[in-house]
Each structure stands twice: as structure tokens, then as C-alpha cells.
Automatic annotation (TrEMBL):
Intracellular or extracellular location(s): Cytoplasm
Purpose: Catalyzes the reversible phosphorylation of UMP to UDP.
InterPro entries attached to this UniProt entry: AceGlu_kinase-like_sf, Asp/Glu/Uridylate_kinase, Uridylate_kinase, Uridylate_kinase_bac
Main location, first listed in the record: cytoplasm
Keywords assigned: ATP-binding, Cytoplasm, Kinase, Nucleotide-binding, Pyrimidine biosynthesis, Transferase
Binding site for UMP: 54, 74, 135-142
Database matches in CDD domains: AAK_UMPK-PyrH-Ec
Biochemical pathway: Pyrimidine metabolism; CTP biosynthesis via de novo pathway; UDP from UMP (UMPK route): step 1/1
Keyword Metal-binding applies: no
Domain (Aspartate/glutamate/uridylate kinase) ranges: 7-215
Chain sites annotated for binding ATP: 12-15, 55, 59, 162, 168, 171
Gene name of the record: pyrH
Protein name, per record: Uridylate kinase
Entries under Pfam families matching the protein: AA_kinase
Amino acid sequence: MSVAAYKRIMLKLSGEALMGDDAYGINEEVVSRIVAEIAEVTRLGVQVGVVIGGGNIFRGMKGAASGMDRATADYMGMLATVMNAMALADAFRRAGVEARVQSALRIDQVVEPYIRGRAIRHMEEGRVVIFAAGTGNPFFTTDTAAALRGSEMAAQIVLKATKVDGVYTADPHKDPQAQRYHRISFDEAIGRNLAVMDTTAFALCRDQKLPINVFSIFKAGALKRVVLGEDEGTLVHS
Ligand SMILES: Nc1ncnc2c1ncn2[C@@H]1O[C@H](COP(=O)(O)OP(=O)(O)OP(=O)(O)O)[C@@H](O)[C@H]1O
Ligand SMILES: O=c1ccn([C@@H]2O[C@H](COP(=O)(O)O)[C@@H](O)[C@H]2O)c(=O)[nH]1
């Protein structure tokens, strides 16, 4: 039987990944496939927290660039992540996996508020906890929320599931010559301004000695490979 390398993980799931090939929003087929991959990992006995992004619906920076007040736009971005979290939780329900959404912004009629002790308890009970609304504060990102919740939940690793298969010397979507790192230290990633994740998230994980693995959510089986400790994506380490 396969043995997981981690007991508890914090998975940062790209919002943009949820739209698949669509121009906007949530592609149900993509969500079901991602949920099936996460469900497989829970069957290995791994406790899973998920921080969901919102880039498929709204990004604060984009709103601010077109003249909106930045904080207002960021709150809208956080609300977008709540919609993604609800879609994800519903897909888990349909797949027969117990999941709970906890939001950093209070919307008690819709989802549970974020309560650390309760989130830990859910995970110990084998429920997937989906952390919505990022950190609950404007001017941050869901990458930072993943670093924060990962630290609070005492996860052993943050897994950034995104559209690229690791950390590159430059953005591979812009520079075809970019080379992928197998491993890279936090200091080097920060020093080289590698924008795959924001500096605040890198710095928090570095300070908490919480490693990050960046991998592609579009590569079938990649999540399980990372969880089994196999060579996949890029490891960012202390
Ligand atoms: N050095 C780099 N290595 C890898 N990817 C990079 C690098 N620099 C920039 N990127 C870009 O960072 C993107 C991933 O981060 P981004 O914040 O855009 O998305 P996400 O966090 O996955 O999604 P969302 O914000 O929708 O939740 C990649 O798709 C890639 O284009
Ligand atoms: O702590 C947070 C997290 C997110 N936001 C806003 O939400 C959007 C979507 O999040 P992504 O990380 O880009 O997927 C983000 O652009 C911010 O506007 C926030 O304000 N605080």
C-alpha cells in the first residue's frame, strides 16, 4: 500500500484553474476532476485543508487598475473565493467526501466562520476544510492565506496547485527559455523576485520553516505523487 509522506497538507488551489478552457467562472468538469484527485489523497489518510483562489472571477488588482478603490476591489475578490469554495464543497458532496467551508469574512447564513480549533477538529475527523475569503484582509492574496492557514493548522507542507508545473527562472508563460528549478531556497526565490507566489507568502513559510511544493493541477496524478513524496514540481525550502 502507498504511504503518504505527510499527515496534514495545505493545498492552495488556483482560482483560474477552475475555469479550465472557459474564459471565466467555474467549469464543473474541471472541478469534478480536481475533487477526484483530492479525494484520492484523503483515502491515503492525509488530512487536507484547501485554500481556494478567486482569479477565475475577480482580482482586486484588476479592479483597482480600472479605477476602483483597492480595498473595495479586494473585498470583492475575497467574496469571489467564497463562491469557488461553495462550488468545490458541493462537488465534494457529490463525490461522497465530507467537506466544510470556513470563511475569513463572516457570512454566517452561507458558510461557517473561520474558527481555528474547529477547522483542526474537522481535519482530524477526516473532513476536507476549504478556507474561503483568503486572510479576510485586503492587500493580501490567497497564496498568503495558504501560508497563514498552513502555519496555523500545523500542516507539514503547502502545496501550490497552479497552471505551471513548478518554479521557473522566469514566468514560463512569457519566457520560453525559462528553466524549471527542481528545488530552490526561500531566500533565492525571494531574492530573484520569482512571481509564481507573492513575497509575503514565501517569507511567512520561510519563517515558519514550512516547505512549499509548486506543481501543475492540470497534470493527472501530480497531487498524489507530491503527497507520496515523489519527485514532482519544485520544492521551495529553508
Ligand atoms: N518564476 C516563475 N515560475 C513559475 N511561474 C511563474 C513565475 N513567474 C510568474 N509565474 C506565473 O505565476 C502564475 C501562478 O500564479 P498566479 O498567482 O497567477 O496564479 P494562481 O495563484 O495559481 O491562481 P489564482 O490567483 O487564480 O488563485 C503562473 O501561471 C505563471 O504564469
Ligand atoms: O487575503 C486575501 C486574499 C485575497 N484577496 C483578494 O481576492 C482576490 C482573489 O485572490 P487570488 O489570490 O488572486 O486568487 C485577490 O486578487 C484579492 O483582490 C484579498 O484581498 N485578501
